[in-house]
Fold each of these.
Amino acid sequence: QYFEHVEEAVWAVEVLKESGKPVAATMCIGPEGDMHGVPPGQCAVQLVKAGASIIGVNCHFDPDTCLKTMKQMKEGLQAAKLKAHLMSQPLAFHTPDCGKQGFIDLPEFPFGLEPRIVTRWDIQKYARDAYDLGIRYIGGCCGFEPYHIRAIAEELAPERGFYPEASEKHGRWGESLSMHTKPWVRARARKEYWENLKPASGRPYCPSMSKPDGWGVTKGGKELMQQKEATSEQQLKELFQKKKF
C-alpha cells in the first residue's frame, strides 16, 4: 500500500506474486491519477495485469474523493475486461481542497488536521456508498478511530448478518438521546437528524478551505531526496526561508 507511482506498485506486485499468495495493492492517488499523470483506471489495469487480486486506494484523500477514484478504477477494469476485488481505505479527514498530492500539501498536515475530522455519520454514508459501488474491502487509514470502524460494521450489518460486538451498549443513530432531559436533544434521537446535519467547526476566524502548498516537486526534485545523515541546520534554514508565513 501507499504507492504514489503505479510503476513502483507494479514492481511490488510482481515480487510479492513470487510468494504464491494473493496480493492486494493500493495506491494513494486521487481522481487525477498518480504523480506522473497515469489515470486511476489505467493504474488499476496495470496492477491487475501484474497479478494483483485486490486493488484500490488508501490514504491521502477523504472518503468522497477516494470513492470517485475507485469509480474510475472500476470503470478502467471493466473497459479492459479485467476483474479484481476492490479495496478502499480513505482518510478520516475532509480534503476537498487537496490537489494531486493529497493532504500532505495541506498547511494543517500533519499536526493540525483535527478540525477536518469526519463524523461517524459521514463514515456510515461512506460505507454504504462504497458497498453500492461494489467495494468489499472497506476500511480506513489515517485519522480513523474505533468509532469510525464501528460505523462501517454497523452500517453493513444487514449484509454481514450480525452487528459488531458490544453494539447493544449503545443506540444506533442517537437512539439513547430519547432519554435526555432536554427536549431539543431528545428530538435528535433519529436517523434523519444525524444524516442531514451540517456540523459547524466553531472556528469563526478560520477559512473553510486551505490553499495547498505547491512547490513544484510533485514528480521529483532534489528537495524530495532522502539522505543517510540527519537534515542539517542549513538545509532547514533554506526551507524555512522558502516557506514563509
Amino acid sequence: MTVTVCWSFRSCRSCFFPGGKETVAVAAIRHSGAEFAELLRRALAAEDHPADAVTACARELATGLRESGWIDGCPVTAAALETLGTDSEIQQACADALSQWEGLVHDKLLAGGYPPEDARELATTVISALEGAEVTAQVTRSEAPLLATGRQLTRLLRSYGI
C-alpha cells in the first residue's frame, strides 16, 4: 500500500509539476502570495484612509496568527530567507509576491493623495514592517508586535497630513 501511494504521488506530482520539487515550491509560494494579496486587498478596501487601512491589515494578520496557534504565518518570507543568495525560481516567486503586495499598498496610498515617490517608499516600508512584525509575533506567540507596528505605521502615514 505504501509503495503504491508513494508511486501514485510521485507520478501525479510529475504529471502536474514536471519541474519537480522546485516547481511545487514555486506553485505553493504563488498560491500563498495570492492569498496574502487577497487579505491585503480586503483590509485596504475596508477603510477609506490608507493609515486606517494599514491598521486594519495589521489587526487582521494578528487575529489570523492567534487563531492558527501562531503557525499560519507567511510562507513567502520563510522561503525567501531559505533561498537567499540564489537565483532560483523560488526566489523570483518570493520577489514577485512582495512586489505585488507593495503595489497594492502603493495604489491605496496614491488614491489617498500621497505623492508618487513617497507612496512607493511608504509601500515598501509598510510591507517590510508588517512582514517583520508577523515573524516576531509568531516567535513570541503574541499579537503585540503586529498591533504595535500597525499603530506606528498609522502615525507615520498620518504625519504626512493627508
